[in-house]
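Hey, I'm writing a tutorial for new members on how sequence and structure tokens pair up, and I'd like a real worked example in the thread rather than a made-up one. If someone can provide the structure for the chain below, I'll link this post from the tutorial.
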Amino acid sequence: MKSMTGFAYSEKRADDYFAAVEIKSYNNRFLEVFVNLSGQLSPLEPRIRALIGECCKRGKIEVTVHEKKKSSLFSAHINTDALRAYISAIEQVKSLLPPGICAGQDIPLKTFIQLDGVIEAETKTEDENESWSNIKGVFLDALRKFEGDREREGRHTEENILSYIAVLEESRDVIAALVPQIEASIKDNMRLRFAELVNDKIDENRLLAETAILLMKYTIAEEISRLSAHLAEFRAEIARDTRPGKKLDFISQEINREVNTIGAKTPLIEVSRVVIGMKDAVENIREQLRNVE
């Protein structure tokens, strides 16, 4: 069993490189993955989504990856051919002007720098495989920690849920032991009502028929049997499925239905007290299941 909530952080530092990965998740009915990548890492989003999808089936997952490099991917160089062409053109302009107009006037350096095509800038694009090679280790480390956090929280949740299942099983046994008393109470009440109506001249066949009808209406033997089956299936589902959240939620609804029916059909105050505790246990189970994948 895994929790849908988890958190992990990992980073990698070197003289000219830094990368950090943060993964956190929240409860959600379906899988939603949000990936925030810095710099030129955006082409890696499909790989990251695929890895998250392999380990998470439900939950809202947020992945943030930061990367900084001291070595710049930006470069600039002088186009000497363009500069020479500009200088040649300027010299031609000077030769065409009357003597003395440009005498003693130097052309500022920034004029040449600002001329179109003299300085050419280039931003290098990092190869996707190279980018993945840089962050793969730190990302997988964060993912491993994230899974460990979810598994650890999941174990605690499972232990808590099973403790409430044990409460339900104990309560079921208490109520099952009271079934003969419940049925005897129904029979005694029916006989008393007949006696009051017919002045002790009781038709035993009619009494038995009416008692049988009431027993069918108010006995809880079938509910206890179905409750036992649901509780056994709940434990079996936890044992066989590492992601039992949706199935367990359905089973817990069925458990709740049987507990409510037992409480509604049973007149004994002893049973009513036990049912109250059972309802509390079921509610706690359903609350915990909201955090289970």
